Amino acid sequence: MTESDAVVRVSVARLAVVTVSLPLGAFFLCIYLSLRFNFDLSTATHCGVPNYLPSISSAIGEFVPQRYIWRAAIAVHCAPRFLVASMYYSFMNRILPNVAFYRNAVKVTTLLNVVENVALLSLSFVSSKENYDVHKVSFILFMVCSELYMVLTCLLLKDNARRFTTPLERLAFVKKKQLMTANLASFVIALYFFYRHNKYCEPGMYSVFAFMEYIVVLTNMAFHMTAYYDFHNHDLVVCEWKTASS
User: Fold this and answer.
1) HSE (side-chain half, CA atoms, 13 Å) at 96
2) Which 3 state secondary structure label does DSSP give 2?
3) Each residue of 153-171: pLDDT tens digit?
4) Contact 216, 207 (CB under 8 A)
5) How far is the C-alpha of 161 from the C-alpha of 5, rounded, in Å?
6) In a domain? residue 6
7) Spatial CB neighbours of 51, under 8 Å, sequence gap ≥ 6
8) Which pTM was predicted?
9) SS3 for 40?
10) Boundaries of each CWH43-like N-terminal domain copy (predicted)?
11) DSSP element (H, E) containing 142
12) Residue 183 placed within a domain
């Protein structure tokens, strides 16, 4: 016979907080350092007009130590992200009806979640200056997969909200809807100001684009942070297996 002893027990809610805190802290630190020490270079654009905020790509990929701070945070946070993606696979299969359509939809959402994470790794470790094409494709993949993941997750849960088993799961769903809406709105607004900046080269337009870009990233982080509620009473347990004689 066999028996197992828990070697490590970690609250998934606490793990979610730590996982999101890594890129969140690195994000604000990189923005601060770029404004403090690399203001002129980080806010410069092809238009040569005054701007006051760096784009995210500039803040996290063009200067040292910002580049290494961001890469370290993303590298460490990605492993728990893959774990949470697998947990959401089980969570969605529990919430949604046991029919082929929903089973396939859960596989699609999980794939989107995983590809989003891989694309984030890629765009973080390959800056636009190092390889523009790889960075561009990674960024597009990240945005497409993250937006589709949020929308599809909310649509699937909306029709099956009655199957939630705890108030925290219902709270998580409400916050998911709010954050998805804010994320999509911010993304559209960011595209508008990016267009205006490139079309008319108006002073400050790129700064507004950069600020809306920040909101897109922050709402994306907050959306993933809802795992804190969905898995609030769950623990991650690492066991040591032993063979016991009868």
Assistant:
1) 23
2) strand
3) 999 999 888 889 899 999 9
4) no
5) 36
6) no
7) 43, 44, 45, 203, 204, 206, 207, 210
8) 0.92
9) helix
10) 13-233
11) helix 132-158
12) yes
